[in-house]
Amino acid sequence: MQGRRLATTDEIIAIVSPNSDDVVAGLESWTTERDITLSTVDVGDEIGEQYDPNRATLGITIGGDGTFLEGIKTFAPRNVPQLGVNTGTLSFLARVEPEDLNAALDEVVRGRAKVDSRQQVAVTGSSVDATGINDVTVEHVPPENPVDSKVTQLDVYADDEYVGEFEGTGLAVSTPTGSTGISLSANGPIHYPVDNHTLQLVPLHTHQLGVRPIVVSPSTELRIVTRGPATLLVDGGRTHTRLETGESVLLTGADRLAHVVRTSYDDHFFTAIAKKLGWGIRAVDDQPPTPRSETERALGSGSHAGTISSAIPTATDADPAKSSSVADAGETGSRSASPAVPSTGRDDRTTLEYARTVATEAAEAAGEPLRELHGQVDSITVKSDKSDIVTEADHQANRIITTVIDNEFPEHGIVSEEQPRRNRADGYTWVIDPLDGTGNFAHGNPNYSVSIALLDCGTPVMGVVYVPETDELFSAIAEVGARRDGDPIETTDRDRLDESMLISGYDPDGTFLSHFYQESRGVRRLGSAALNLCYLASGSADATWEHDTHPWDIAAGLVIARAAGATITDERGEPFTFELETDDRTALLGSNGPLHPALLGHLKTGLSDRGADR
After folding, report:
1. Which of 103, 349, 363, 512 has its CA 20 to 30 A from that of 504?
2. What pTM value is reported for the model?
3. Which CATH class name applies to 3-119+257-329?
4. 614 pLDDT exceeds 90?
5. Enclosing H/E stretch for 605
6. Would you say domain 121-253 falls under CATH 3.60.20.20?
7. How far is CA 344 from CA 147, 316, 352, 409, 461, in A?
């Protein structure tokens, strides 16, 4: 889950352990000041009607790791991200201290927290169907007669390949999150849990020296068959059952991930290890060496994790001892590595780089509910219900994007297809289409996109287009260059129509299609103007045509196509002029450049023929 999505939080549900009244009182005060709904539930109780799936919800647990695990059982099936407040003792999961809760929540609702998507383990069998975030253990049942055998024998298969017979106390199948529990006590390895979706099989009190832990992918199906009675426990007994002789259970990575919210106020993973377990590599209070400059540390690592590169509180927001970026823990990354603090200079390149980072994170965050709702379209047959889903998708995506931008650039204007305009003709204005390709989306077609552009005094200078179904991200800064998923892109150099692939946008009477289909290698229509321009920019097409354009459909794509080397004109060959405030029809012809003369010639012929027919 993209951390920027948390900026739209409407509601907080807190699962509370005993003796937490002071923390709850502080949380009530914080939520009241920000007009966020708060519901509290005692640990072990069901949340029931407190949860509304139509509201943006944040889960909080107040207690130790036991309370946190109860939160996972409650929130993970509902896809609700969870923040843990530590009022316990030995805690690896709940890592925000009560005195830091308000500051950590401020970071969350500004969209500057990170969300770790943690692997869970699922177990199914004739007597069990459960999911856990830590581990599943299969252990020996103590005999009633003390002279009977005190070991258990288990046969293990991985994707139907026989692994072998495990003899001892039992086995633990753990996730990386659970690697510091039972599996560590059994001499298993510690797994760094961030973006780690493996499972590990650890023998417990094995009777054979050569038996070692095994690491498998989450898609691996582990089948355990008992040779005697055994006890199965999930997450320390939150689900438990007795297995009889010859009974088989299947374990694999759960489809549903658990979303754990991390802020700069959390103890980092290895700091927690040092504090809780006496990690011998460094003392608890050791400061790590600085391998990079402060500026470099503020840059994303360039990974595909889509995390927040701007999560550095100011000195007034946090204790300086905790004011380091999450990057210190090696947990950051973004497709557009950019400085974490926006420049105030009007013409400073850093401002546009930062704007691209924010737009990237906003687009990826908006893409998540679009994917979720897109998956529901095919199962709906009633047209009105399908329309409701499309409307909800537009609304959710637009709200995420505009909230993120308002948080970071409150002085900027915002123009969106989905809300009243707030234009800054003499400054910066964002132009947003939260769902370009609505018709495709409504029919379950994957060709839709999120388009976000920044104008400087009316001129598009930065653009981001995100394709949720393929996870492609196109971006550009004017006169700097265009990228797809971080890699530079440019247009083709073809100059022959018969070798070219063309894309048509809105072409009401088929003029473009009829005059170019036989002259080229084909004319395609995708149904998203933003995508058309991006595919032109990346060389997937040699030209694109739009009979009529709307500013929010093309603002970001224009920047990307031009930065990649495209030529963009109107139907007469005049340079295309972007107009934000216009109701007039504006045609657009884009090409790789060398092909443009041939395109114009055929297009003018087609338009003349159409005029003669009329």
Report:
1. 363
2. 0.80
3. alpha beta
4. no
5. helix 596-613
6. no
7. 79, 19, 11, 11, 16
